[in-house]
Design a protein that fits this description.
Strand content: under 5%
Distance between the termini: 117 Å
Number of helices: 2
Structural class: mainly alpha
Largest sheet: none
């Protein structure tokens, strides 16, 4: 092997090594940057979803509370209707009771 061939082999080998190194090094860096960006985007999306879930839970709790209140009003009105139908109470009592129920449940004063 002549010195020219040795120099050519060294140049070829170093060029290949540098090329491969650059290609793999760049790929890793690009992949890492891309994965890091994707992870940050997903973290942000998860935070948004968790915030939305908390808001939904609070809204659900308010709706359930309102539903329970409406059930109590419903049962009260059903009991009142049973009292009326039973015939055990006179008209004056029925009017007083109706006015009381209306005032307690936001329906106004006298019927």
């Amino acid at each position: 092997m002549t010195s020219g061939e040795i120099l050519q082999a060294i140049t070829l080998t170093s060029t290949l090594v540098i090329g491969v190194w650059t290609l793999w090094g760049k790929g890793k860096d690009t992949n890492y940057t891309r994965l890091e960006g994707e992870r940050n985007r997903l973290d942000q999306r998860v935070a948004e979803l968790e915030k939305g879930r908390e808001e939904d839970r609070a809204r659900l709790e308010r709706v359930e509370t309102e539903l329970d209140d409406l059930k109590r009003v419903h049962y009260t009105l059903i009991d009142f209707l049973r009292d009326i139908v039973s015939g055990n109470f006179d008209e004056a009592w029925i009017k007083r009771r109706a006015a009381d129920l209306l005032s307690r449940h936001g329906g106004g004063g006298t019927p």
